[in-house]
Write a structure and sequence with these properties.
By secondary structure, the protein is mainly alpha-helical. The protein is rod-shaped. The protein starts with a helix and ends with a helix. It comes from Liparis tanakae (Tanaka's snailfish).
């Protein structure tokens, strides 16, 4: 295989591997981000909860 073609093949393979690793890390981190921070805060803001009410909203939304 000519050196130029070999360099192109390895470069494309490296970019493909890097993009797969990035997509896998995003896929693993996304569900935790969705269920933990954003939905709980949004639910607490919707009901305007404070104190004991806030704890109840947070516990209810974490169980769902």
């Amino acid at each position: 295989m000519p050196p130029r073609q070999q360099q192109l093949v390895f470069s494309v393979s490296g970019l493909l591997g890097l993009s797969c690793a990035l997509m896998a890390s995003v896929a693993l981190g996304l569900p935790l981000w969705l269920s933990g921070a954003v939905l709980c805060r949004t639910g607490a803001e919707l009901v305007n909860a404070t104190g004991a009410e806030l704890e109840q909203v947070l516990n209810t939304s974490m169980a769902a």
